Amino acid sequence: MSSPLVFIDGDQGTTGLQIHERLRNRTDISLLTLAGAERKDSRRRAEAINACDIAILCLPDAAAREAVGAIVNPAVRVIDASSAHRTHRDWTYGFPEMTPGQAERIANARRVTNPGCYPTGAVGLLRPLVQAGLVPGDYPVSIHAVSGYSGRGRAGVEEHEGAGAANAPSLQVYGLDLAHKHTPEIQQHATLVHRPIFVPAYGAFRQGIVLTVPLALRLLPPSVDGATLHACLARHYADAAHVRVLPLHESSALKHLDPQVLNGTNDMHLSVFHDVEHEHVLLSAVFDNLGKGASGAAVQNLDLMLARQ
Q1: Does the annotation count 117 as an active-site position?
Q2: Complete DSSP assignment for 256-307
Q3: Of these residues, 52, 58, 117, 232, which one is catalytic?
Q4: Which CATH code fits 117-290?
Q5: pLDDT 10s digits, 203-247
Q6: By Cβ atoms counted within 10 A, which residue in 74, 89, 290, 300 is the most buried?
Q7: Which residues contact 244 (CB under 8 A, 6 or more apart)?
Q8: Which residues contact residue 37 at a Cβ distance below 8 angstroms, ignoring those fewer than 6 apart?
């Protein structure tokens, strides 16, 4: 029996390159990519996507929609790493640890949409707490995150590693119109009633993310404190291979959060910090924006889908 054929459409971008790197030495699948001259040939791309078992799309949103529209073979399954389908009701959200049964839903799905890098941290922190009733769905959520410059794609890498790298900024806060494309995704999958305020930034490091969500205990249900929130997250991710909730004693000993500590992995660390005197809590997520935030997550979803191929 031949091994499943996996087509990476867009393997020259930051996400596609890392997916290819993670898969190229595997013997349980056959990889299909297109030569440079064929990558913009719509006919050749349509042939390739209809010939594969599973397609991984590492494309801009419009190109991802075009690729999906070219599928006529009903057996083809898709993992879309773009943001084109992340809030689409007919696509399965590719965050296996999000809720009980989500990994099984991904395994059986025909269409899987990979989470965005920032939403991976935000949804990972908020969804279990909202579902447990510890954080009200109408809480006025604000989210702050700093990503490595690879989150900008080729433009970010060129700015920091190209000829003008000496002039690259050390920090860029962006999305100042508060209309970042990840915000609707966060709201939907964290099950928030209101649109959260999301403030992203790029730092002068290649990859990695620190994302934080501050909470005021006075706005949470009575008796909810940092330990309650931590216990909920710890229970939710107790059996997760790639998400670790740091014990309270471990997080309380931290003096800073290093966005690069999990680079090269598909892991995510969640922490809860509690200021007892002022009744403030800070939730944090640390992970690789090109790992659990992109290519690592795509490969994790691929493995789940291959189990049902």
Answers
A1: yes
A2: ---TTTTTTSS-EEEEEEEETTTTEEEEEEEE-TTIIIIIHHHHHHHHHHHT
A3: 117
A4: 3.30.360.10
A5: 999 999 999 999 999 999 999 999 999 999 999 999 999 999 999
A6: 290
A7: 237, 267, 268, 269, 270
A8: none
Binning pLDDT at 50, 70 and 90, where does residue 35 land? confident
Query: Whole-angstrom Cα distance, residue 291 to residue 298?
Result: 9
Domain boundaries defined on the chain: 5-114+294-306, 117-290
pLDDT tens digits, 171-201: 999 999 999 999 999 999 999 999 999 999 9
The CATH code of the domain at 5-114+294-306 is 3.40.50.720
